[in-house]
Model the fold of this input.
Amino acid sequence: MKKFLFAILFAVSLFGYNIKEFVTCKDVQDLTPINKTDTFTTKDKKVFAFAYFTDIKKNSLIDFVWEKKVDGKWKLYADIQLPVFAGVRWRTYSNITIRPFFKGEWRVSLVDGNTTIDTKKFKIIEDANSSN
Done:
């Protein structure tokens, strides 16, 4: 428990906020993640990465960095920079639209400046009901 509290206090002092939640999901409605998962199919429309910040000391910018594994190496797909505003809490999200050729291993990272705060790996697979 002491390590956990120290980690939270360290994150708030280092970055000026706390990360309450960072997940991948199939949708975001009313700033709430819907259908949290790490597996998506080619029939799903989008992959969302949702972040929930608390105790934000100052306005800042955060990056959602989307990467796909190609031939064993991570390749940048998109880097989306979004604001995080000072206050008690802030929720934000980024998404990618799934294309049929997006099958494979992916990851999305939450990055502050040059520091990766958290990374979520996920996969996009062929929909079992699709006809070839």
In short: Strands lie at 18-29, 32-36, 39-41, 46-56, 60-70, 73-84, 87-97, 104-112, 115-125. The domain at 2-125 is CATH 2.60.40.1930 (Immunoglobulin-like). Confidence is low (pLDDT under 50) at residues 2-13.
